[in-house]
Amino acid sequence: MTNLPKDSSVPGEQFEVRQTHPTEDYTPDPSKSLKLSPARQRLVDDIIALYSCEPTIERVKRYTPDCVYDDQFVYANDRYKMAGQWFALPKLFKASKNERYQIVVDEPGIIQFRNEQSWTFKVIPKTATINALVTLSLDPATENSDFIQVKYHKDQANDKDYSHEGLGFSFKKWQADQVMKHMDSPEVAEFEADKGAAKEAVNSYGSGAAEGNAPTKEL
Asked: Can you tell me the distance from the alpha carbon of 85 to that of 69, in angstroms, rounded to the nearest whole number?
């Protein structure tokens, strides 16, 4: 069981879950998927819809104002930046289809699932299918409600976790900031107040492997 904060006022950075995987293979097997409670299933349905280029204000509200989104291309550390990312996807991709997913962890404070998503680019007529491990760290204040919110959303497509260091990480932060400069929509503006949400310095680990506080887990 992952030891996450129980206090909802703690900034999103402290809700990070870290792990390495024995392989880079996150191919989902829906037949082995864990069954979620109705409220948790609705949360996952909304997250899948966001991945599938179907953003709405209500779906973005699945995140707390001080949330963190962390993947191989982006590090967004509030809901305003997060909204910019989700509402930008339909501008960048012609389509995004969820092929299948498998819930692998359903515990207090956390949901993890293997996700297979196909992305079709607008400019280049090409479709890329990516398998990843998605980790949702849940907000303690809403975890047992009908509308569960997320504190930390990690999308991990490789066996190693993120070190949060070096040029790669600087680019991830820069990308999140740059998208906001080009997003002029009332939907994103709905979350502008969230750019003042509580933040902490980014935790850096020196490595994305076990020595970087990312223990090996078979998920």
From this structure: 9
Please report which confidence band the pLDDT of residue 2 belongs to, taking 50, 70 and 90 as the band edges: low
CA 156 to chain centroid, in Å, comes to: 9
Contacts 24+ apart (CB under 8 A), 167-170: 169/75, 169/202, 169/204
Q: What tokens were used for 200?
A: 């902490």
Structure tokens at 139: 């907000």
| Interior angle at CA 136, CA 132 and CA 137, nearest 5 | 145
Amino acid at site 99: E
Determine the Cα–Cα distance for residues 175 and 75; give it in Å rounded to an integer. Answer: 8
For 148, counting Cβ atoms within 10 Å of its Cβ (0-12 exposed, 13-18 middle, 19+ buried), the class is buried
Nearest to 121 by CA among 97, 99, 93: 93
| pTM listed for this prediction | 0.95
Give Cβ neighbours of residue 108 (< 8 Å, ≥ 6 apart). 1, 143
Tokens at 34, concatenated: 């864990």
